[in-house]
Automatic annotation (TrEMBL):
Pfam families for this protein: Glyoxalase
Protein name: VOC family protein
Residue ranges of domain VOC in the record: 7-132, 153-271
Listed transmembrane segments: none
Source species, domain of life: Bacteria
Length: 310
């Protein structure tokens, strides 16, 4: 069993409008945009990152906004719900705030003894807030939400699968432990992790396979401290039979990718070097940052990319 993985690093999804996406995360949810850059493979498309003040691993939601992208179709083989941690007693505030801002899909429930508020993103994305007592992670409070209510980072991610057995075995190999099972959901936790240590596996054998589009999660990333730990994980996964990509430099972290038995794309990402490698902390996410291979496109991209601020 591996011991290098610390929990979630980031979750990357797709959207159809960059302005709407930016407004939702920075204004509605009060998160900080920590990086404004472009898709490595399609530089005419933004890659936007939202998180806490520094973009700490375990807090970062990222998006590829493809203009006029059709909505995805929910199904198996994908992350169905991305869940954020908020302070105990704050769901009433969030229910009123989200309702007043026109957010849809609001539904309160309890899962595994935790109070939870489900809601939909602008593209039908599946989100939830879960009350967590004494989450020590510092919130970003310059986004219009006070520290008494502000998002702390990820709580969990829920994957929809036709059969959870092989994915559960993989996660246990990655260091997760099974906590409980209830109503077709297997909950796994990362002991001693970074605070973003819960994965729920939802078994849905009669659901069709998902079709990706706007509102779909593209991939889910797990955190390791550094490149040395990442290489150890890569070797162990390959020795187990997984087809893992070479290490790829993503400017703010190094990444490897592999497809899981249930169809979900996993990434292992390093905590280094971080989002302040090319901007100081006070100005994260303000300027358009371009990967080295796309810097010559700056005049074209600055003219082409949608403005994010009103």
């Amino acid at each position: 069993m591996l011991n290098q993985i610390k929990g979630l690093h980031h979750v990357t999804s797709m959207a159809d409008d960059a302005f709407t996406n930016n407004q939702f995360f920075t204004k509605t949810l009060g998160m900080r945009r920590v990086k404004k850059t472009v898709n490595f493979d399609s530089p005419d498309v933004y890659h936007l990152y939202y998180g806490d003040e520094a973009g700490t691993p375990g807090t970062v939601m990222t998006y590829f906004p493809f203009p006029q992208m059709p909505r995805g179709r929910a199904g198996t083989g994908e992350v169905g719900t991305t869940v954020f941690s908020v302070p105990e007693g704050s769901l009433g505030f969030w229910r009123e705030r989200l309702s007043s801002l026109g957010v849809t899909g609001l539904k309160e429930e309890q899962t595994f003894g935790e109070k939870r508020l489900n809601f939909a993103g602008p593209d039908g994305d599946g989100f939830a807030l879960v009350e967590v007592r004494d989450d020590p992670r510092a919130p970003w409070t310059d986004g219009g939400v006070s520290g008494d209510h502000a998002i702390r980072g990820f709580h969990s991610a829920a994957m929809r699968l036709r059969d959870e057995v092989a994915t559960a075995e993989l996660l246990k190999f990655m260091g997760y432990e099974e906590l409980a099972r209830k109503d077709g959901v297997t909950r796994l936790i990362m002991p001693g992790g970074n605070g973003a240590g819960v994965i729920d596996l939802e078994t849905m054998p009669n659901l069709n396979r998902a079709a990706q589009g706007a509102g779909s999660v593209h991939h889910i990333a797990f955190a390791v401290d550094n490149r040395e730990k990442q290489l150890e994980v890569r070797k162990a996964l390959m020795d187990t039979g997984y087809q893992v990509t070479p290490v790829i430099d993503r400017d703010y972290f190094w990444a490897i990718y592999f497809r899981t038995p249930g169809g979900v794309l996993f990434e292992i990402a390093t905590n280094e070097p971080g989002f302040n490698r090319d901007e100081d902390l006070a100005h994260l996410g303000e300027a358009l940052k371009l990967p080295q291979q796309h810097k010559h496109l700056r005049p074209v991209l600055e003219n082409h990319l949608q403005k994010l601020e009103a």
